[in-house]
Design a protein that fits this description.
208 residues, alpha+beta, outer membrane lipoprotein receptor (LolB), chain A, 19% helix
């Protein structure tokens, strides 16, 4: 079990943070049109079914690694595929109502009631996966206090919520909607970075 824990921690480090200067081609540049925040927020909240692809990585206590990510959200359920370098293979995190499953590259399967509980169970600490589905859109978690700053177009520029600091470095236009494409999330000695190369928005099971 101790060997698996060490390997699991290595996997977690590999799939949770992008090291240094890796870049990906981006979609169209942001429209950068001023929009009242309530209107922009409502526009983003209408997106229910979506997919993103890109790179994500983690820095923990000055150790950094990176991995490819494919995250798909449909009908409230999500599947996150993480593709590590070398021989680490793929890690799959699947979430549905009151049940989250994680399968490691060597076939071990773990389940819990929430992603946070599951990550704590397997790795000994957690990343707020439930919050990320809001943060990656440039939204704060509803009904939870937050400190926000905005750029001149009313894109969310920074966010402090539940002890986490979220910074939005770049936006890109997806079907006329500005979505984040470079995000940094920090807490204590953990620093997470997303570089999103492709967003897809789905409506009635069709890409729009």
């Amino acid at each position: 079990m101790a060997t698996f824990k060490r390997k699991s921690l290595s996997l977690l480090i590999i799939f949770l943070f992008l090291a240094g200067c890796v870049t990906l081609p981006s979609s169209d540049k942001a429209r950068n049109i001023f929009m009242p925040w309530d209107k922009r927020k409502n526009q983003l909240e209408q997106i229910k079914n979506w997919q993103l692809r890109g790179l994500v990585g983690v820095t923990i206590k000055k150790k950094s690694e990176s991995v490819y990510i494919n995250w798909q959200q449909k009908q409230g359920n999500y599947t996150v595929n993480l593709f590590g370098p070398l021989n680490f293979g793929a890690v799959v995190l699947h979430g549905a109502a009151h049940k989250v499953t994680l399968q490691t590259a060597d076939g071990n399967i773990f389940t819990a009631n929430s992603a946070e509980e599951l990550l704590t169970q397997v790795f000994g600490w957690c990343l707020p996966i439930s919050n990320l589905k809001y943060w990656i859109f440039g939204l704060s978690v509803p009904y939870v206090s937050a400190q926000k700053t905005f750029d001149k177009y009313n894109h969310l520029q920074s966010l402090k919520q539940q002890g986490w600091q979220v910074e939005y470095l770049l936006y890109t236009a997806v079907n006329g909607i500005d979505l984040p494409s470079k995000i940094i999330i920090r807490k204590e000695d953990l620093r997470v970075k997303f570089i999103i190369s492709k967003w897809s928005i789905f409506a009635w099971n069709k890409t729009v």
